[in-house]
Amino acid sequence: MATLIPRAPPPNTHRHFLHRPPTLSPQLRLRLPVRRLRLASPVVAIATVTAAVPPDDISQLNNRLRALVRRRGVSSAATSPMDPAQAEAYLHMIREQQRLGLRQLRRHAAEPEYERDVGSNGEDEEEGGGRRKGMAARSSLGHRVDPRELEPGEYVVHKKVGVGKFVCISGEDGEDYVFIQYADAMAKLAVDQAARMLYRYNLPHEKKRPRNLSKLNDPSTWEKRRLKGKLAVQKMVVNLMELYLQRMRQRRPPYRKPEAMDQFASEFPYEPTPDQNQAFIDIENDLTERETPMDRLICGDVGFGKTEVAMRAIFIVVSTGYQAMVLAPTVILANQHYDVMSERFSNYPDIKVAIFSGAQSKDEKDELITKITNGHLQIIVGTHALLTERMAYNNLGLLVVDEEQGI
């Protein structure tokens, strides 16, 4: 991820840029290696920020892991430093997953793509004649916007100036110009320049307002905000790398594929979609072949078959002697999941399904907790009442979280 550090424009370079404005009206923490599967619905858009941590930063990660061990007083293989060769292998796995994920996003992205100015040697040209290597000539992952698609009052971000409000496109001397209102002045940009430098402040149709507009004549404030954001992203990346490296060091024996797996799959009354089939394959491979914990996000709108994907994962886990927890955000949704799963697993009398929620009486809860602790229940569906301190699982192997994404 390339980050551009704001700087003040060179003298006499952007005098035409200023134009005085007219009058305007104003989660649950679980011990690994519990597998986790998240169901997300509905999905309107997916925004992702990615950044690569070079191999040279492995030592930094190991130093932070050592500090974590000292701070928590933990001495386990899960948090012990790793040698560079092992860490590089893990980083390769992460980069491969990142590559596959970005490829899927590029394929499905709905944002229009805009050409960058590319030099004859294949390097991207930036404002002021600078070039950067290794950047794709086309990108569908950013939110760079065609200024002709903006509506008056929509918030935008200029790469070098900051947050402003789109006013209009107006013609002067046979040329079209974009007018952007800032806190202290109005910016006037040629349309082609605006197309290269402007980004949406929000995702399409999002109405969130910025806290304040940037100052056109004071780029230092915007520079501080950019630097603060850059440092926050770098910190997030290092923390994520720590999480992934620790997770990949966890070990658990792969589940064996149930003999009745094909029969269970054949009982699904509908024809699976290609995406469903791929999700089935990926999750089954995670559970039956990998020795590291699974953590997957299944995205799809209502009725797209996410629950069936989750139930096949549950079937693998409970058939091996483990328990599965299904966490729903509301009692209504928990009851729906309970009804669906009770029917889906009705042909397998050894698999017991129960529901646990705050709406039940104390006696009912006590009885269920006893059965869960003793291992007499294999699938437990419920709300956040499942997270009570009184709850003790016999052998929890899979957590399924159904959550709505408000993107």
From TrEMBL:
DNA repair recorded as keyword: yes
Alphabetic keyword roster: ATP-binding, DNA damage, DNA repair, DNA-binding, Helicase, Hydrolase, Nucleotide-binding
Gene Ontology molecular function, alphabetical: ATP binding; DNA binding; DNA helicase activity; hydrolase activity
Sections of the chain in a coiled coil: none
The keyword Acetylation appears for this protein: no
Region (Disordered): 111-144
Highest taxon, organism lineage: Eukaryota
An annotated GO BP: DNA repair
InterPro entries in UniProt: CarD-like/TRCF_RID (IPR003711), CarD-like/TRCF_RID_sf (IPR036101), DEAD/DEAH_box_helicase_dom (IPR011545), Helicase_ATP-bd (IPR014001), P-loop_NTPase (IPR027417), RecG/Mfd (IPR047112)
Domain Helicase ATP-binding: start-end pairs: 287-407
Gene3D superfamilies: P-loop containing nucleotide triphosphate hydrolases
Listed name of the protein: Helicase ATP-binding domain-containing protein
Native source organism of the sequence: Triticum urartu (Red wild einkorn)
